[in-house]
């Protein structure tokens, strides 16, 4: 089962308030709006484990500290993530959610209002007490999640059939709950979250145009309700732009009628983004709600390149709404009657303003941590790669911890990501297993046959299947290798490299402001391993950083001693002094050489040769002739070889396609990007060296015969 978890080294599931939390939720909370509305909650083994992990307490806990400051749960759509987030919010507001000492055994927690809930503590179990003045903020990592979480909260506090309806001292309104001791539960937009200043004890992260809004396409018209990923709209200047994301239909949003200069109007949610300005003033990205609250005149851009003054923005009743995103640099597309008006992409937490909301709230929480035991709960379905969303930032932070590129900091993270692997979606048996792996306990209420039918619906894109149904990472549109293509080369049945194996080496890198990597490939079967990778750290640590050249030298020497090395191709720039010494030591032993005079120097500034080497490697990956050892996720944070395998994968997926006159090259995302590709380039050189060795007949030669074909490329 593909599931990656990050837990603290001293994590002990027996030392957790989560057992009490699970029992409390199952007694007091009912399912919110949906097919099982009003039914008691019963957590399966998986979500019980998640709750227990979230509420883990350190062995030497003091000052109400939980073991984790933040928790990240990644599951496919339909797994009740928002429901779980809502239940945690209710427990934070009303339950014994903070550490109150260690039990000797036999102590009890009884609810203070006589509802009949009683929990008996085991010896050594942490005991709980209510949060003082809880301030719980519900945010959204996706467009429709904030309301989904709050619906569970609101339903449980306003429906007479729910036990918490009778809990004294709360007043629930449409988007906010006021608690008796001055606490509250609040949903937030970017404009409101930054103004409250350090009050939060818990936060969870889980806006849009009306469905009948006309959108102009290059061939006619469509509507917000009908547009899908891959469709084309008309952007600014009349240029076609491609739809790269759409959200589900959202209901119960605060909505406004935006009156256009022609007399027509569009209905937009409070959180919909506009490129707008005061007449004659500077333009900025603003929400409908921000413009309405500020009042006065606002202007939006027209397709003619001019600005038009809106006739008004007025609050209206809620209607179903939806968001789309396009791939234009200015994020604008034409919408509204006549198609003259340009509106903006709207995908929460992918704009600087909205991601800043999360950062502000997180900073506020750390201020209260000593007295309130604050923590952050983030739920998500797999993000779109390259969109720089909040979820992607957290995921990348987790992978940096797993690979050992970062040490665990003061903001301690519990990370839990589950997904399904299916290299070939046409293989129904493989697909069904991938769905089982991704959904886990959620298959108790999901119909696997319907999910499979949805996959094979021709209107469903492959990227959508992998992201939303399998919760698997997809790749950027210009990625050289796609994630499932690389994953398909992972093997559990092929032995890892062993001492004495006949191998070839590849190396690439710089000595500062980048990375350097060494890759070994077994000649007999194409099995490869990253032997070492030295990367410039991000942030202040990376300033004035230089690669540890002695460590690279030691890695090469170790490989020469461990393996029967038949060849070594290394890109010479920045390493000419070391290459001269390596050539002096081992060049005469190489059975395959880059050239007679410089047997180790394989220059990547030769377009024809590089295009050939890249194409050979890419084809080998697609045909699964390349392999690497696939380690189970539970080994990744602790096994050095497993961490290096993840590093090689990361570099492979960072590579972007770059068509040139000479053919297809690869590049980094941008020249100064922190997303390195040196390890995969080292793998390409190692593979080219293997190809040259095989073409020279190395596998047909008796071992005792010295073999020296020269491969001049």
Describe, in plain words, how this protein is organized in 3D:
The protein is of the alpha+beta class and 713 residues long. Helices cover 28% and strands 23% of the residues. It is built from 17 helices and 37 strands. It has a nine-stranded mixed β-sheet, with helices on both faces. It has a four-stranded mixed β-sheet with strand order 33-32-31-34. The protein has a three-stranded antiparallel β-sheet with strand order 15-16-25, with no helix packed on it. Helix 16 packs across helix 17. The model is unreliable at 141-145, 190-195, 345-351 and 703-713 (pLDDT under 50).
Characteristic key phrases:
17 helices, alpha+beta, 713 residues, globular, 4-stranded mixed β-sheet
Strand order of the largest sheet: 1-29-2-28-11-7-10-9-8
Helix share, percent: 25-40%
Global shape: globular
Radius of gyration: 29 Å
Biggest pleated sheet: 9 strands, mixed
User: If you average the pLDDT, what whole number results?
Assistant: 84
Uncertain spans, ≥5 residues at pLDDT below 50? 141-145, 190-195, 345-351, 703-713
Q: Total helix count?
A: 17
Secondary-structure-derived class:
alpha+beta
The proportion of strand residues reads 15-25%
C-alpha termini separation: 44 Å
Total strand segments: 37
Please render the helix and strand layout as text.
Elements lengths: L2 E4 L11 H11 L16 H10 L15 E5 L6 H14 L3 E5 L5 E3 L7 E3 L5 E4 L5 E5 L5 H14 L11 E4 L2 E4 L4 E4 L2 H4 L8 E4 L3 E2 L3 E4 L2 E4 L8 E3 L5 E7 L8 E5 L5 E5 L3 E5 L5 E5 H7 L4 E3 L5 E3 L2 E5 L4 E2 L1 E3 L5 E4 L5 E4 L7 H21 L2 E6 L9 H14 L9 E6 L9 H12 L8 H8 L6 H8 L13 H5 L2 E2 L10 E8 L5 E8 L5 E8 L13 H14 L1 E7 L5 H11 L20 H16 L5 E2 L10 H15 L1 E5 L2 E5 L10 H18 L18
Parallel strand pairs: 2-28, 2-29, 7-10, 7-11, 11-28, 30-35, 31-34
Antiparallel strand pairs: 1-29, 3-6, 4-5, 8-9, 9-10, 12-24, 13-14, 15-16, 16-25, 17-18, 17-23, 19-20, 21-22, 26-27, 31-32, 32-33, 36-37
Helix pairs in contact: 1-2, 3-4, 15-17, 16-17
């Amino acid at each position: 089962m593909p599931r990656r978890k990050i837990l603290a080294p001293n994590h002990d599931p027996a030392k957790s308030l989560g057992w009490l939390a699970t029992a409390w939720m199952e007694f007091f909370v009912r399912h919110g709006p949906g097919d099982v509305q009003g039914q008691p909650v019963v957590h399966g083994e998986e979500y019980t484990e998640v709750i227990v992990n979230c509420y883990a307490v350190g062995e030497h806990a003091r000052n109400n500290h939980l073991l984790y400051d933040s928790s990240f749960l990644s599951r496919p759509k339909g797994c009740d993530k928002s429901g779980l987030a809502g239940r945690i919010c209710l427990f934070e507001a009303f339950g014994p959610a903070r550490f109150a000492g260690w039990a000797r055994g036999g102590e009890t927690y009884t609810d203070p209002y006589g509802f009949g809930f009683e929990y008996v503590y085991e010896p050594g179990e942490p005991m709980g007490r209510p949060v003082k003045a809880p301030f719980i903020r519900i945010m959204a990592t996706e467009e429709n999640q904030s309301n989904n979480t709050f619906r569970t909260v609101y339903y449980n506090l306003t429906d007479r059939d729910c036990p918490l309806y009778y809990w004294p001292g709360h007043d629930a309104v449409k988007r906010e709950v006021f608690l008796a001791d001055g606490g509250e539960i609040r949903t937030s937009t970017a404009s409101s979250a930054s103004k409250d200043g350090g009050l939060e004890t818990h936060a969870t992260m889980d806006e849009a145009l009306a469905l009948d809004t006309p959108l102009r396409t290059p061939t006619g018209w469509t509507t917000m309700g009908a547009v899908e990923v891959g469709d084309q709209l008309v952007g600014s200047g009349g240029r076609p732009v491609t739809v790269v994301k759409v959200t589900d239909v959202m209901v119960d949003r605060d909505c406004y009628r935006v009156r256009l200069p022609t007399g027509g109007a569009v209905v937009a949610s409070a959180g919909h983004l506009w490129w707008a300005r005061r007449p004659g003033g500077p333009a900025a990205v603003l929400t409908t709600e921000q413009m309405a609250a500020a009042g006065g005149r606002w202007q939006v851009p027209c397709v003619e390149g001019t600005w038009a003054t809106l006739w008004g923005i007025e609050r209206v009743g809620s209607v179903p709404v939806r968001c789309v995103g396009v791939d234009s640099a200015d994020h604008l597309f034409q919408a509204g009657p006549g198609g003259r008006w340009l509106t903006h992409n709207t995908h929460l937490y992918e704009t600087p303003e909205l991601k800043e909301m999360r950062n502000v709230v997180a900073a506020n929480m750390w201020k209260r941590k000593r007295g309130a035991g604050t923590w952050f709960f983030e739920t998500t379905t797999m993000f779109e790669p390259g969109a720089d969303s909040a979820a992607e930032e957290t995921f990348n932070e987790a992978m940096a911890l797993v690979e050992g590129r970062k040490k665990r900091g003061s903001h301690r993270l519990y990370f839990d990501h589950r997904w399904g692997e299916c290299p070939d979606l046409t293989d129904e048996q493989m697909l069904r297993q991938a769905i089982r792996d991704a959904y886990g306990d959620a298959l108790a209420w999901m119909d696997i046959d319907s999910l499979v039918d949805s996959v094979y619906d021709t209107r469903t894109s492959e990227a959508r299947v992998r992201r939303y149904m399998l919760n698997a990472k997809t790749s950027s549109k210009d990625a050289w290798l796609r994630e499932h293509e690389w994953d398909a080369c992972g093997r559990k049945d092929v032995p890892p490299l062993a001492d004495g194996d006949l191998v070839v080496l590849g190396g690439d890198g710089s000595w500062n402001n980048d990375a350097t990597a060494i890759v070994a490939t077994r000649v007999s079967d194409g099995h490869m391993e990253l032997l070492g990778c030295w990367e410039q750290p991000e942030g202040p640590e990376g300033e004035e950083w230089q690669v540890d050249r002695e460590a690279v030298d030691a890695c090469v020497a170790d490989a020469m001693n461990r393996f029967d090395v038949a060849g070594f191709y290394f890109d010479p720039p920045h390493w000419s002094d070391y290459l001269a010494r390596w050539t002096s030591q081992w060049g005469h032993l190489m059975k395959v050489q880059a050239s007679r005079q410089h047997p180790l120097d394989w220059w990547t500034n030769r377009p024809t040769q590089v295009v050939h080497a890249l194409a050979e490697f890419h084809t080998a990956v697609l045909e699964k002739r390349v392999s690497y050892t696939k380690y189970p996720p539970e080994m990744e944070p602790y096994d050095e070889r497993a961490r290096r395998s993840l590093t090689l994968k990361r570099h492979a997926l960072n590579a972007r396609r770059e068509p040139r006159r000479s053919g297809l090259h690869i590049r980094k995302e941008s020249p100064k990007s922190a997303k390195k590709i040196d390890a995969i380039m080292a793998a390409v050189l190692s593979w080219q060296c293997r190809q040259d060795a095989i073409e020279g007949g190395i596998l047909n030669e008796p071992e005792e015969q010295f073999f020296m074909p020269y491969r001049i490329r």
